[in-house]
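Dear support,

Our group has been running a series of protein-ligand predictions, and this particular one with pyridoxal-5'-phosphate is the one our PI (initials K.S.) wants archived with full inputs and outputs. We had some confusion internally about which version of the output was final, so please treat the block below as the authoritative record. The input we submitted was:
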Amino acid sequence: MLSQKMLELGTNRSVIRDLFEYAKERKAEIGEDKVFDFSIGNPSVPAPACVHQAVEELIREGDPVLLHGYTSAQGDAGLRQAIADYVNGQHGTALTADHFYITVGAAASLSITLKALAEEGDEFITFAPFFPEYRVFVENTGSKLVVVNSDPKDFQIDQRAFEAGITEHTKGVILNSPNNPSGVVISEEGIREMCGILEKKQKEYGHPIFLITDEPYRELVYGGVKVPYLMNYYDNTIVCYSYSKSLSLPGERIGYIAVSDRAVQWKQIYAAVCGAGRALGYVCAPSLFQQVVKRCQGVTSDVSVYERNRDILYNALTEYGYRCIKPDGAFYLFVEALEKDAGAFSERAKEYELLVVPADSFGTPGFVRISYCVSTEQIENSLPAFRALAESYGR
Ligand code: PLP
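Confirmed final output from the archive:
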């Protein structure tokens, strides 16, 4: 009667959503400020002034089409050109409006791209730890997700494991840097090596292998760390971008796909992207926010708050005896659980009103993810609880 797969997906919520819902209930019981919710990546920093200004202006201008009308299925041409101009200015690319497809966020960008590429029997590689929805998006196309572990010492790419994971069935590789959940930014050296392997394997198997680069955290980096622009390193690149984090707009659902002008038969790929958008019903992203982001190209939320949160949390937790890699980007701290079973550790943390996500579904058992895109006050208030939790394990 029903798709069992969809029933299963709809019934078994992700562990992140479970904790997020638990947090709401718990806050209602004991008070908002008593619960330290580090479950979800909902930016605490407000959207920059440019966003609200643009909304106000657009409403005042009152053009019904710009406000609430349909745009082209692939998004407003003026917006797509504005993004192309911005990206070209930043990265020296030669993109035009015709390389961009506007989406309802990175989740849609990924779903559309995978749908556009996948044929029967295809495999897509990603690196653990990874955003758990990749499995859902890849399997929804009938393809297989192949998970390659990162180097456990720094969560950079383990190039030998990567090469070993590529087969004649590999259609694409999903890379996410800055990474959710580790916060790691893949080094330029690592990118070059990975791209070299991809070039070699494309030749060996005689077909393209696409690099799908999931970049909602591109602008969220600290200490001047460089995030290489993948199109400049590998021709068969498709960028999946979102304004959810860079402009603190996750609920507005706005992002894009960019197909490299150097990708093999890029016009065909772009047409397949349009077809996949149509098949999935992801056409004509919200008009109002298409216009808003058009006016806010190059603007980013104030990420200094995240950097401060990262420093406070990282310094305190390492002092209390937790082990974690200092993240260079995104707003997650990836911490080794103080017992083997991260689920059990997360349950014990709840006794201290700390909500941290066990990372098994990220492909990395034994770790938890702490989303530090919360107020600095919450971070500071939570420290005694983190200390007490560590002490309960004899640290
Ligand atoms: N990819 C990664 C790595 C993410 O962390 C997220 C959201 O947290 C997404 C994709 C989905 O982003 P969006 O809200 O723009 O759909």
